[in-house]
Amino acid sequence: MGETTAMNGRSERLGRGKAIAWAPVPREHGAWVMLYAPMLAAFAVSPATYWWGYAALALSAFALMFLREAVSYAQCKHWRRRDTTWVIVYGLAVSAFAVPLMVTGWGPELAVPAMFAGLIFSVHTGLSALPFRKRFDRSTAGEILGASAASLSAPAATVVACGHCTVEGWILAGVFWAYFSGRILHVNMLLDAAKYRRDFTCDVASKVATPLSVYMVALGVILLVGISQPSIRIWSLVGTAAVAPSTISSLIAQRHLGDRVPSLKRVGLQETIFAIWVASVIIFAHIVGHSL
């Protein structure tokens, strides 16, 4: 579920020699679901319905994804003028959708998640520009940091629904960030294993699976402790049901870990389904009366 979506070769060839480069378009399913799953879950569990506000927030997030892609691409190309043009175009699109939200009564409250998202985006962009052996935005840490920004769509959605930031919105952001972090570890485990090719051994399998194994043990302990506490038992059981399919998938992947490059389309579809399942379980729990 990588966070880097650089332009493909065809787009580069089409953009070469022109005053304006070919438009950068996000191509990763993972990034989209990280952005919209928390938002939709927050909309569904919130008491009020403001459809125009929901639409404006969703479109703002949509434009932000394109802006992030344009910044990443321009950064790769050392900020050439024809690439920077799309940063300006997408920035104007973000403003067109976000300004109406900010000038309404939601503005001061929306500024809180927007401030955190902007800070994370700035740190992410700055670290990606540093000359690390591997670009930061292509690293596991960079992807997890990016997921934290995407998960902030949940508190932003509760602001639009309720008029203010709610505890529930921040809880949803934390829950989805924790979940997405695990899935990033899962996908990167598969990709890291494939790098070894003929040198793949049991020791290599253990090495590449360790981060995900530590994550799953920690998650299991947290859920078991939560189930043992009467005050949060219901939601701990809901959490267990939400992560059960993806956890089983990870256990199977670790058991059959090999040096074959996984089908990225299949992995992307699988992760999208798992994320929708998590959001659906939360929404269903709310519907049956266990509101956050």
* Order of secondary-structure elements: HHHHHHHHHHH
Major sheet: size, sense and barrel closure?
none
Q: How widely separated are the two ends?
A: 28 Å
- Total helical segments: 11
**Computed CA radius of gyration, to the nearest angstrom:** 20 Å
Helix content: over 70%
DSSP, total strands: 0
The proportion of residues in beta strands is under 5%
Low-confidence residue ranges: 2-20
Shape: flat
Average of per-residue pLDDT values: 82
The SS-based structural class is mainly alpha
Helices and strands, with pairings:
Layout: H1 9-15, H2 29-45, H3 51-76, H4 81-102, H5 107-128, H6 140-151, H7 153-162, H8 167-195, H9 202-228, H10 233-255, H11 264-287
Helix pairs in contact: 2-3, 2-6, 2-7, 2-8, 2-11, 3-4, 3-7, 5-6, 5-7, 6-8, 7-8, 8-9, 8-10, 9-10, 10-11
Structural notes for this entry:
The structure is a single chain. The chain has 292 residues and is mostly helical. The protein is built from eleven helices and no strands. α9 packs antiparallel against α10.
Q: What are the defining features of this structure?
A:
single chain, 292 residues, mainly alpha, flat, disordered N terminus
Task: Compose a concise summary of this entry.
This protein has 292 residues and is mainly α. The protein is built from 11 helices and no strands.
